[in-house]
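Narrative of accomplishments. A recurring question from our advisory board has been how the design workflow behaves on a single, concrete structure rather than in aggregate. To address it, we present the structure tokens for one chain from the evaluation set, followed by the sequence designed for it. No filtering or post-editing was applied between the two.
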């Protein structure tokens, strides 16, 4: 069957990576060059396009030095890419597994592009000015130090903690509060689905068999 052909699997993986990278970068560039930093556009009561930038990991997390994080991303993407090529060559993994690994690879690469090049090709975004393209190397930062663009905000539940609750009583509570991008979503969907449906393949990966 053609679906079990390794050439078919390779082209599927390549198509997924290219499609995700294109969609991710188109969205990010559109937001960065048309919105001021911190600007939010209401789509519905539970969905906003809100432009933020971060130096950290997915969903704005930050606990690693920026340079170290960028180098770690490079290493991780290289490892995932090597692993994806390896399982395609062996032609033993199901197509669904390959699709999900390609999603994770593309998502990681999408955010890495921001870190590698955005500081070189854009001037700084501020709450008062919209960022624009600049000659290469004349941007707001240096190689590996670009900021990741995030924009999807889903405050599905907005309420206040009861006054009687210690520490948080009376404080605002928002679910879901992180602002993220398309690449983050691809990584999250890919990882969660892998854990749910492809544990056997992951066990083989992490046991080095």
């Amino acid at each position: 069957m053609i679906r079990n052909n390794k050439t078919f699997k390779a082209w599927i993986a390549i198509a997924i990576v290219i499609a995700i990278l294109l969609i991710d970068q188109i969205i990010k560039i559109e937001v960065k060059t048309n919105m001021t930093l911190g600007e939010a556009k209401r789509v519905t009561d539970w969905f906003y396009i809100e432009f933020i930038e971060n130096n950290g990991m997915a969903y704005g997390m930050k606990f690693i030095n920026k340079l170290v994080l960028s180098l770690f991303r490079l290493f991780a993407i290289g490892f995932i890419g090597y692993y994806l090529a390896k399982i395609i060559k062996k032609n033993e993994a199901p197509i669904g597994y390959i699709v999900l690994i390609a999603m994770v690879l593309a998502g990681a690469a999408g955010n890495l592009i921001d870190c590698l090049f955005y500081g070189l090709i854009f001037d700084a975004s501020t709450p008062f000015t919209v960022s624009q393209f600049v000659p290469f190397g004349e941007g707001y930062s240096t190689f590996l130090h670009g900021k990741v663009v995030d924009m999807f905000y889903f405050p599905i539940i907005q309420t206040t903690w009861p006054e009687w609750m210690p520490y948080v009583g009376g404080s605002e509570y928002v679910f879901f509060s992180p602002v993220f991008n398309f690449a983050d979503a691809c990584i999250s969907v890919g990882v969660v689905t892998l854990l749910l449906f492809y544990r056997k393949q992951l066990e083989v990966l992490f046991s080095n068999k």
